[in-house]
Amino acid sequence: MVAWTVVRKGAGPAPAPPRVSRAAPAHPTAPRILPLTHRFLLPVLAATVLGLSACGSDQDTASPGAQSTPMPSDMPGMSTPAADASPYDASSGKVTIKATEFAFGPSQIQAKAGKLEITMENDGAAVHELVVLKTDADPGSLKVTDGRVGEADSVGEISETNPGKSASHTFDLKPGKYLIVCNVKGHYMQGMRGQIVVS
Ligand SMILES: [Cu+2]
Description:
By secondary structure, this protein is of the alpha/beta class. The protein contains five helices and twelve strands. Strand 7 and strand 8 (148-149) form a beta hairpin.
């Protein structure tokens, strides 16, 4: 169907007229031997079959089909953001998190209990950091004072890193939920936060 459509698109309007004349001669010969109902039905069936196999006679229905052909290849592209929405699998024990203004990517991470090496790449234009807090709190729900969140639950951090630089730290994580935050003044509130779920 795909190849057909492509071919038809290329060949376009040209094959359409001959097809009509090809279908026409079938009518006088076939119906003569057949009962009335079949005389009526056969041309209809023939036209239908022709229409289905050739597509060309049904240009209105064929065209949407042709236009929908690129859709499947668009769908994976559209599902990519959806894949980003599902947690990043860091069960390998390593994850690289890009810091930008003002987000971490990935911001949702799944990890196995034990050592997790986080590398923060500062792809932004400002200094960023990455603090890991042991808390069940929702990523956006932390109390902010003077542009920062409390770090009492910190289990370690990658401290302030300049734009274009990266830094790593290995965290020892127990099963449970953690948040990652950039605690440079104002950055958490503007979206630099995320969650690590450890199982
Ligand atoms: Cu930041």
